[in-house]
Specification:
Rossmann fold; disordered C terminus; 36% helix
Length: 301
């Protein structure tokens, strides 16, 4: 266990909020996965899974409030992203459950988190969380899906993302990063601030799993009925993955889940809802988690 090193470009107030992070490393199949942790090790654990081409920093506006609300916040860099290794043969989200299960078990055995666990998965991380808990139902009591793909609902027009690795200058690459952020991740132009650009740029440069394809399938819709954890969902009103189809998703998801919790749409936000509308998102997530905890306690009485 070592102290975590925060990105150098964080604003002072955010860097102070995130100070005291721990860097924990777990291993599975000879590959290392890095977890970033905050809060009391005895507190209920909240595992936050980031999106594709991302890292733990997808959640940096959520960590402080969740820690201060009494959670042990654990945010891994998923295999193939951020500081974590890309395991041999790992090419898409369906290869991740063994690494998440082994990692959580190692942290619990080492006394770095409790056995009371909830999972929140953003986008690609929502897919990973669903597959993980379908295979390992004992690992968590609740799953909250945030902007998760894999529901089999496609939008009429393909999201116009552009490639950047071939571009010869940083200025040209930055222009593409700005375009991609507005095409997929964010809704309001003012949400694309310097921090969002820095985070996105740093994250996509460390994406070593470039040929992911399962997000365009119905893999989550097929697997969700196998998840025994209580399932809830938070989506941005203008999520580009479900443009014009969010009402269909709202009707379908409660029918997919064995134990349905809550559905919530955050007004005015896009796909990266926990960044673009952090205050509303954090309050909504904490309310969902507390309601789920109450249901779990009642069921045990």
């Amino acid at each position: 266990m070592t102290a975590d090193v925060l990105p150098h470009f964080l604003p002072t107030d955010l860097a102070q909020t995130l100070a005291g992070a721990e860097r924990l490393v777990t291993t599975c199949q000879s590959a290392s996965m890095v977890w970033h942790a905050w809060g009391n090790v005895a507190a209920p654990a909240l595992v936050l899974l980031h999106g594709g081409s991302g890292s733990w920093t997808h959640w940096l506006r959520c960590i402080g409030p969740l820690r201060d609300a009494g959670w042990r916040v654990l945010v891994p860099d998923l295999p193939g992203f951020g500081d974590s290794d890309l395991p041999i043969g790992c090419s898409d989200v369906d290869d991740l459950p063994p690494h998440l299960h082994a990692g959580l078990l190692q942290l619990q055995t080492a006394g770095r988190c409790s056995t009371a666990v909830n999972v929140v998965g953003f986008s690609f991380g929502g897919m990973a969380g669903t597959l993980w808990l379908a295979e390992n139902p004992q690992d968590a009591a609740q799953l909250v899906l945030v902007g998760a793909p894999g529901m089999g609902l496609t939008v009429p027009e393909r999201i116009p993302l552009k490639g950047w690795r071939h571009l010869p200058t940083l200025q040209a690459q930055e222009a593409v990063h700005r375009h991609n952020l507005m095409a997929l991740m964010l809704h309001a132009p003012e949400s694309l601030d310097d921090l969002a650009l820095h985070l996105h740029t740093a994250n996509v440069q460390r994406d070593r799993m470039p040929r992911r394809r399962l997000s365009s399938t119905d893999i989550v819709a097929r697997v969700l009925p196998l998840v025994s954890a209580r399932v809830s969902a938070i989506f941005g009103e203008h999520d580009a993955l479900y443009r014009g189809r969010l009402s269909e998703l709202a009707a379908a998801m409660p029918l997919m889940a064995r134990h349905w919790g809550h559905w919530h749409v955050v007004p005015g936000a896009g796909h990266w809802v926990q960044y673009e509308a952090a205050l509303v998102f954090n309050a909504t997530l904490m309310r969902i988690l507390s309601l789920g905890d109450a249901v779990t306690r009642d069921a045990k009485l």
